[in-house]
Structure to design on (354 residues):
């Protein structure tokens, strides 16, 4: 179960909502740790048979459990509903809880077009669809027929991640720590960060910052090779880090940097986690990041180029203690909207209106 979805389940339970969780595609015998009754179903929810089994499972559990709502915490089940020729439920409201939507993407290939068509068909069966602010705006312009079903809702961030600025006179060390986290893929822009740090090292005749990256993925090999080629000695690739350990890494850092490019960012969870720890951010404002990034407010907005990223790093390095305190506080205030209790309260309030 994805972290955000697990936190939704946990938050609903803490709010007094009885929840039965059905997880698809998990090996039998693996149980959840989110405090809710969980049923694991090993069949794949992505193939043709899996789509039909997904819908049949929803129908069967609705009859047995008789819930007030059916919550779909991913677009896969929505796609399955779009493939199913009959109504899934005429009495129980079906709610989609996600941050992005495939309908907001270019979908230039045949598979993407097919998935988009099925999801659009599945949306017709939903009573409500919760997505991020930017996704809501995009969907409203592309699909005015479902605009009345769409609600803006971010993803929950645990209270343990929040650390308000304690010292407004805090100064940066001579070599501060820039931190990144997430799935290691080329579009995250980490290569740009390494090139920018090398550019600044040449300009200042020393490495101006440490850079830590937490996460795994195919791009790690390339990034490690690039760091070695650029002779950067203050770079640490931490590999997989447990979710509960991330908060400590954020607090050991001084700024979060991730100049992501592309259309894969549906909410920007790691940016919000970092800001919850009062870290200013250096980021692009592409896709859903536009609702998080405030240039000169909670961080610095850059373009996905080496020169622009280097400029963003240098702007950060030159902040005064007063500016750093202001940036840190603004970052914390941006993240506070997404505290788990706030997100769950907003979700429950909307459900009660149905």
């Amino acid at each position: 179960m994805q972290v955000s979805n697990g936190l939704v389940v946990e938050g609903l339970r803490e709010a007094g909502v009885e929840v039965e969780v059905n997880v698809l595609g998990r090996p039998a015998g693996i149980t959840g740790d989110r405090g809710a009754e969980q049923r694991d179903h090993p069949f794949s929810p992505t193939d043709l048979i899996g789509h039909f089994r997904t819908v049949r499972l929803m129908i069967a559990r609705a009859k047995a459990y008789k819930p007030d709502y059916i919550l779909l915490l991913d677009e896969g089940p929505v796609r399955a509903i779009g493939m199913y020729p009959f109504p899934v439920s005429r009495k129980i409201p079906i709610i989609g809880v996600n941050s992005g939507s495939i309908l907001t993407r270019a979908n230039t290939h045949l598979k993407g077009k097919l998935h988009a068509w099925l999801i659009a068909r599945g949306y017709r069966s939903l009573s409500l669809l919760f997505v991020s602010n930017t996704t809501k705006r995009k969907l409203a312009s592309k699909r005015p027929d479902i605009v009345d079903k769409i609600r803006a809702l971010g993803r929950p961030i645990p209270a343990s991640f929040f650390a308000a600025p304690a010292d407004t006179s805090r100064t940066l060390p001579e070599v501060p720590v820039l931190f990144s986290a997430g799935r290691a893929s080329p579009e995250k822009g980490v290569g740009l960060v390494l090139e920018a740090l090398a550019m600044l090292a040449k300009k200042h005749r020393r490495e101006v910052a440490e850079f830590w990256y937490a996460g795994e993925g195919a791009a790690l090999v390339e990034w490690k090779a690039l760091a070695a080629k650029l002779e950067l000695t203050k770079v640490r690739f931490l590999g997989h880090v447990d979710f509960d350990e991330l908060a400590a890494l954020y607090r050991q850092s001084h700024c979060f940097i991730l100049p992501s490019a592309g259309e894969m960012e549906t909410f920007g969870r790691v940016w919000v986690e970092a800001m919850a720890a009062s870290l200013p951010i250096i980021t692009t404002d592409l896709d859903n990041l536009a609702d998080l990034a405030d240039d000169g407010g909670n961080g610095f907005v850059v373009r996905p180029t080496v020169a622009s990223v280097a400029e963003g790093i240098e702007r950060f390095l030159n902040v005064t203690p007063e500016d750093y305190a202001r940036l840190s506080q603004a970052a914390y205030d941006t993240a506070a909207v997404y505290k788990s209790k706030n997100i769950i309260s907003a979700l429950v309030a909307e459900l009660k209106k149905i």
